[in-house]
């Protein structure tokens, strides 16, 4: 398959998180593969307009890879709704810390705030679909290779690399390349990117020096 054919077969849709803070969710279709990158929500999850627009893209008869970059609510807040109330065949993949912190974070949220859309049972069911992956471990299928790469943002956070022989897409999620507890002596070795999907809540060339 030529590079041009690879590009033409890849389709990217923004279900949430475009020109807004919260509900990060991006949909990629490539030949027979359907990928959902993150499934976030805006904090006021009592309303459906705080969730990504799943229904136009999700087909109950198709299979979906749901790749979660990290546990923060704006990247996972709609995951129980997607799995329990949007018919489809889902396989959720993240690193182990993301799975555990997602559960604790969401459970605390449900205890603190009354909620009309999600109950604890929805959260428990979503946990059953998680599969764990390690840094640079390959999720390989017939058409694509998928890797999770340390993004240095929080414990377990990842950038997600999707590639075949002719193209490469990187989804950053939230990332940090400054020295920190989560990011030390690590160099991003990512080259020849064809598509770069960047999480960009804020951006500046100049930041005040951090002091404790």
UniProtKB/TrEMBL annotation:
Gene source species: Lotharella vacuolata
Gene field: ysh1
Source species, domain of life: Eukaryota
Coiled coil (residue ranges): none
Positions of the Metallo-beta-lactamase domain: 22-202
GO molecular function: RNA endonuclease activity
Protein name per Swiss-Prot or TrEMBL: mRNA end processing factor
Keywords from the UniProt entry: Nucleomorph
Keyword Membrane set for record: no
């Amino acid at each position: 398959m030529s590079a041009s054919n690879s590009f033409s077969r890849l389709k990217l849709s923004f279900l949430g998180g475009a020109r807004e803070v919260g509900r990060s969710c991006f949909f990629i279709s490539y030949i027979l593969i359907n990928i959902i990158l993150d499934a976030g929500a805006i904090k006021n999850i009592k309303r459906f307009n705080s969730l990504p627009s799943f229904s136009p893209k999700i087909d109950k008869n198709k299979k979906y890879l749901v790749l979660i970059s990290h546990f923060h609510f704006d990247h996972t807040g709609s995951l129980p709704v997607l799995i329990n109330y949007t018919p489809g065949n889902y396989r959720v993949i993240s690193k182990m810390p993301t799975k555990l912190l997602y559960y604790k974070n969401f459970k605390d949220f449900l205890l603190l705030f009354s909620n009309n859309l999600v109950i604890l049972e929805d959260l428990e069911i979503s946990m059953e679909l998680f599969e764990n992956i390690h840094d640079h471990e390959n999720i390989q299928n017939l058409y694509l290779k998928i890797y999770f790469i340390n993004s240095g943002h929080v414990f377990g956070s990842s950038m997600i690399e999707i590639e075949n022989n002719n193209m490469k897409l990187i989804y950053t999620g939230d990332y940090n390349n400054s020295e920190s507890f989560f990011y030390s002596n690590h160099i991003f070795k990512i080259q020849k990117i064809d598509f770069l999907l960047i999480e960009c809540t804020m951006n500046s060339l100049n930041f005040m020096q951090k002091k404790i």
